[in-house]
């Protein structure tokens, strides 16, 4: 039985403040363009665990080899499933293109909801910017690594990668702004291609390589070269494995473009998590059975190329699989541009960004101007990639750190205010709600601390984790923007902006 709705407390808005600011809500609405299948595909291909995590195996491997990787993925799967099941319920209760920003507003007390929602919205934009840059630079780097694979005389320069990053960003912006429906259909094809590739990859790795590692090497030989003690190294490894399940919030940002979002968005989130855990665990077990040089894999700039080089020992085969991964990762970039545009548009619709009236305008029933903001941010953040690899890496590390905080904040609010503030919804945790929300909150608190530690010890200037510094800078910038201008225009979500099937 769903919890009862406390209507005045859960959806009320300060009317006097809205009239004070005189910020008019646009009447434009996003077009219903996604089916349940395309939303599931959108979620799965954004997270695409077994593909995406192929670029992040170095940290858990250095923290304990095969056992740290395999058991770390299992523990990380439990942690992220708990966090995201709690979030799926909130997405069912308050579906909106704003995602976490909207949910935080609806769950926080009246006295703090505007400020909390504003900061959540801007932090969401920052982590989406970091995630998009991370995936797009991986695509650009992989393309240039293929060039280097076939042309030993070519030397990759950081500015080469940056220019390719800009080109790929422009293409992604154009495609997602003008043809979002086609991108949704493409996502279904990519979902099928991902599953087919997953099976083919397992078969390729396990049948081509004649000499296999022992089960002891994969499951029991704990080799910690991180410099941390074995116990703490395991938690650092688990923290690294959390990246395998990032991006599961993607379906929430197309809530206004799918029928019955209260039902369909949670289905997409839960399906994404289930498929992600199964595929990433199976693929990495196969990887550990065929790897021949663990240290080379840890030190590789593009680990997935190293995996296939070791397993297949063939330039042609490595190239085929590298192209496959490039396609998979670039689809993630397309998805990120889609929900970046919708997040910024939702925030601008409520007066939460400069020049909100201009940015909130839709073209072809799509937030083209809001998406253009993300394109500009990609060009800017790319400069950091060229200027300082350490600063760029610290900024990228902000992605999952900030994402988990934004999905845990409203769950913490439920613990303080009571779950009775939730409206009727298609997906309810019922009697398991408090336990889930409390566990999710504790998980996020603990692993947020873990995220702040350097992955290796002893720590040098180049290996230092500057995550806290980057997060502080982001919060300071957001606070300045709030204080100088946007506190006067930001209204928070307006109920008449959302259609009737949103179950408020």
From TrEMBL:
Main location: membrane
Location of this chain's protein in the cell: Membrane
Protein name listed in UniProt: Amino acid transporter
GO cellular component: membrane
Presence of the UniProt keyword Nucleus in the record: no
Keywords: Membrane, Transmembrane, Transmembrane helix, Transport
Transmembrane segments: 34-57, 69-94, 115-139, 159-176, 188-208, 267-291, 322-345, 366-388, 394-416, 437-457, 463-484
GO MF, one example: transmembrane transporter activity
Pfam families: AA_permease_2
Bilayer topology annotation: Multi-pass membrane protein
